[in-house]
Amino acid sequence: MSDRADFLSRLEACLGAQSVLTAETDVEGFVEDFKGRFKGTALCVVQPGSTEDVAAVVRLCAEHGVPLIPQGGNTSLCGGAVPSDESGRPVILSLSRMRRMRTIDAVNGTMVVEAGCVLKSVQDAAAEVNLLYPVSLGAEGSCQIGGTISTNAGGTNVLRYGNTRENVLGVEVVLPDGTVWDGLRGLRKDNTGIDLKQIFIGAEGTLGIVTAATLKLHPLPSCFSLAWFAPSSIDAAMSVMSMFRAAASSKLSAFELMNRTQLDLVIRHVRNRKAPLANSADWNVLVELSDVREQAELDDLLQDLLAQAIEEGLILDAVVATNDSQRAELWEVRHSVTEANKSAGIGLSTDCAVPVSAVPQFIDQATLAVRSHYPEMDIVIVGHMGDGNIHFIPTISFERWKAIDDKSAVSAGVRRLVNDVAHKLGGTFSAEHGIGQTGVLAMADYKSDVELRLMRLIKQAIDPQNIMNPGRVLPR
User: Fold this and answer.
1) At a CB cut-off of 8 Å and minimum separation 6, what does 352 contact?
2) Domain with residues 223-334, CATH architecture
3) Do the domains 223-334 and 1-220+439-476 match in fold?
4) Where in the chain are the domains?
5) Which long-range contacts (CB under 8 A, 24 or more apart) does 272-277 make?
6) SS3 for 204?
C-alpha cells in the first residue's frame, strides 16, 4: 500500500495531481470499451500533455514494474485498449491531451501530428491546404491517430491508398525504458537499414508508445462520383468490380459490400437512415470514383460502367448521388453499421481478409459453417470488397444470448469456424482491427511457430519487463 502511494505521489509530481485520475468515477470511462464488452481495473489513469511527460511516466512504470496500457479514443473493436486479467492493475496512459498538429509541409506532402489528434481533425487540417490524409473509417470522429497507427487501421479508402502503414512516413516513440526515439522523418526514400517505424505500426502499444507521427498526404480529390447498386449475386458484384478496376484504375476509391441483413439493421436502429433503393436486395454495393479533374468526365465514366453492368444482367437496380448531400447520406448508411450492430444484439464480429478472388467462396463457406452449428444466428456481412476484407458477423439477440450458459465457448466456437474458412482460403483472421483481447488465442492457432518466435524475440529485446500492454498480440 505504501509502494502504491509512493508511486502515485511520484506520478502526481511529474504531471500534476489534476492529470492523475484515481477516483472510480473518474476512471470508469477508461476501463471499459465503448461497446461494453470488456471491462477491467486500473491503478490510475494518467493524461500527459507532452512527449516528455509520457517518457517520465514510462520511466516510473519501468522502475516500479507497473504495467502500462496506452489508450487513444478507446474505439477498439477487440478490447485492445482496456485492462484485462493479463494486464493486472495497470496505469492507463490516455493520449487525449496530446492534440497538437506540429507542422504541415504542403510541398513535401507531409504533416507531423501528435498521437492524440482525432482522425477527422487531421483530415480537415490537410484539406485546408488542399491535401488529403486518406485513412477513413466509421469512428474517425473519435478515434485518435496514435490508435490508428498502433492497430494499422484500414477503413474505406484502402483500395486506393492502402492501410495506415502505407501512409505513415515516420514516428516518435517512447520506448519501455522511457527513452524517446525521434523517427519523425518525412522521406519517401530512406534505405538506411531496418525500417524501424514498421516495428511499432500495428504492434498495439506492446513495444512502445507512439507519441507523434509524420503522415503522408495526397492530392485532395476535387470531384466524386458515387453510386449505390444491388448486384444480382456476389459473383456479379465481383464482375462489376473487375469492370470498374479495368476502366477507372486509380480513380476507383471505394467498393463497399453490405448484405440485406446489415442494411436492415442500419435502417431500423439508426435515426435518419433511409434505404438507398426502392426495393430491398440480398446484396448492396457502394462504389465511388474520385479524381482531381473534370466532374463531368467522372460522372460519365460511372454512368457508362453502371449501364454496361445493367445490360449484362450484373446489376438489378442502382441509384447515383447527384449532389454532395446525397453522397453524404449514402456514406452515412455505410458508416452507421457499428452503431446499428451495437443496438441490434450480440454480434460476434470477425475481421477476416482473403484474396479478393476468394471473397465469394469465403462468404458461402463461412455461412454454411456457422449455420450448420448455430442455425439461430443471423449472418450480418459488411466489408471492403475491393481489398478482400469482409466483416462476417454472426449475430444473436440479447435475450437469446442471456440464455446461453457458456458464452465464451460459443463466442470462440463461432469465430473459430469463420477464421478456419479464411485460413483455408489463404486469408487472415485480423485484417484491420488488430488483435486486442479477442485475437490472442487465434495467433497461436494461425501464426507459424517461426513467426511467433520472431515476434517474441523482438518483444523480449525491446520490452524485457513486459510492462507495455501485456497480454496483447502474443499468446502465452
Assistant:
1) 362, 366, 389, 390, 391, 392, 418, 419, 421, 422, 427, 428, 429, 431
2) 2-Layer Sandwich (3.30)
3) no
4) 1-220+439-476, 223-334, 345-434
5) 273/332, 273/333, 273/336, 273/340, 274/329, 274/333, 276/228, 276/319, 276/330, 276/333, 277/228, 277/229, 277/230, 277/317, 277/318, 277/319
6) coil
What CATH number does the domain located at 1-220+439-476 have? 3.30.465.10
Confidence of residue 84 (pLDDT cuts 50, 70, 90): confident
Cβ contact 163:152 at 8 Å: yes
Give, in degrees to the nearest 5, the angle at Cα 212 between 165 and 146.
60
Q: Band the pLDDT of 1: cuts 50, 70, 90.
A: very low
With vertex at residue 79, the alpha carbon angle to CA 89 and CA 397, rounded to the nearest 5 degrees, is: 125
* pTM for the model: 0.91
Per-residue model confidence (pLDDT) at position 88: 78
- C-alpha–C-alpha distance, residues 397 and 405, integer Å: 15
Does 345-434 carry CATH code 3.30.70.2740? yes
